[in-house]
Specification:
One of its GO terms (molecular function) is ABC-type sulfate transporter activity. This protein has 8 helices and 22 strands. With 362 residues, the protein is α+β, with helices and mostly antiparallel strands. A hairpin with a 2-residue loop joins β9 and β10.
């Protein structure tokens, strides 16, 4: 079932939390609402569910306006971060709950409910725990029960509010893979809230990056990673280094070194330069490709490479991070290295300039 979100605005008192939000979610797609705390992502999810009501705008499910429908009439499944299981009920009864409280004319027979719950227990790999209580389950098991309960009423839309946020890292990874596989099998439309970038990138078909009640970018995980639409997206997604620099004519300056740009930008003067750690060349010797001296502060093994924290030697104030190829001997703390720039994104304030590739410095 498709979801159409059209010009949604929401305020709590004088605080504006959603600003004219519009978003189309095709049927069968899994979408992540990704952003920091206070970005409005959970409020938007609750408005889709009918647990909050917008001040203006419309929500449509498969073309039908559900903006004023009560949550129970929207036929969506909702999975909370902290499970919200009934402590006095067994796993079986928790999953069956949504079916047992349906109006009599819609309620399945007891035998049909038993069959459905048994099927769901097998699907979430908890058939052997049907008679246990929530207190006897691990966090990962509780979240699987919560998901099975949401799926019991066969919703065409599944909404999840940071579903793995309360779990440890290894369990989160396992459940992410499992949820993605389940989605591929059942093909339901799903929207989930997360502040975990890795989770969004691994699970979602599309990522909606939000900040301060606005949508910054919508795209595939690869799109938002490789082609960030704004400075916020660039800085929010993954690790990025920022350097002070300047543009004079067609020359780009960092410290005492400068590079030809191959074009003359309209914006001249002070700019900021952004590079991911792996977009920085590093060498033990100064060269035209690696002219900028740095001192190694920290060395962190990362399997097939080392992550280094380095301090620029006179050309920049703040330390930054880079990747050192694991095929070479690991550098030592205090060792002097030399770095150069592969390619970089330039910004003047929040105004993006074109991405540039650097050759040799002059």
């Amino acid at each position: 079932m498709s979801i159409e979100i059209n010009q949604i605005n929401k305020s709590f008192g004088r605080t504006r939390v959603l600003n004219d939000i519009s978003l189309d979610i095709p049927s069968g797609q899994m979408v992540a609402l990704l952003g920091p705390s206070g970005s409005g992502k959970t409020t938007l999810l609750r408005i889709i569910a009918g647990l909050e009501h917008q001040n203006s705008g419309h929500i449509r499910f498969h073309g039908k306006d559900v903006s004023r429908l009560h949550a129970r009439d929207r036929q969506v499944g909702f999975v909370f971060q902290h499970y919200a299981l009934f402590r006095h009920m067994t796993v079986f009864d928790n999953i069956a709950f949504g079916l047992t409280v349906l109006p009599r004319r819609e309620r399945p027979t007891a035998q049909a409910i038993k069959q459905k719950v048994t099927q769901l227990l097998e699907m979430v790999q908890l058939g052997h725990l049907a008679n246990r209580y929530p207190a006897q389950l691990s966090g990962g098991q509780k979240q699987r029960v919560a998901l099975a309960r949401a799926l019991a009423v066969e919703p065409q839309i599944l909404l999840l509010d940071e579903p793995f946020g309360a779990l440890d890292a290894q369990v989160r990874k396992e459940l992410r893979r499992w949820l993605r596989q389940l989605h591929e099998e059942l093909k339901f439309t799903s929207v989930f809230v997360t502040h975990d970038q890795e989770e969004a990138m691994e699970v979602a078909d599309r990522v909606v990056v939000m900040s301060q009640g606005n949508i910054e970018q919508v795209g595939t995980p690869d799109d938002v990673w490789r082609e960030p639409a704004s400075r916020f997206v660039l800085e929010f997604l993954g690790e990025v280094n920022r350097f002070d620099a300047s543009v004079h004519g067609s020359q780009f300056h960092v410290g005492a070194h400068h590079w030809p740009l191959g074009f003359t930008p309209a914006q001249q003067g002070a700019v900021e330069l952004f590079l991911r750690p792996w977009e920085i060349d590093v060498n033990r010797h100064s060269s035209l490709e690696t002219p900028l001296p740095v001192q190694v502060l920290e060395v962190s093994p990362r399997g097939h490479f080392w992550q280094l924290l380095v301090q620029p030697a006179g050309w920049q104030a703040e330390p930054f991070s880079l990747v050192f190829d694991g095929e070479h001997i690991a550098p030592l703390r205090g060792e002097r290295l030399y770095v150069g720039l592969q390619q970089a994104r330039l910004y003047q304030g929040n105004t993006p300039l074109r991405t540039v590739a650097f050759a040799e410095s002059a």
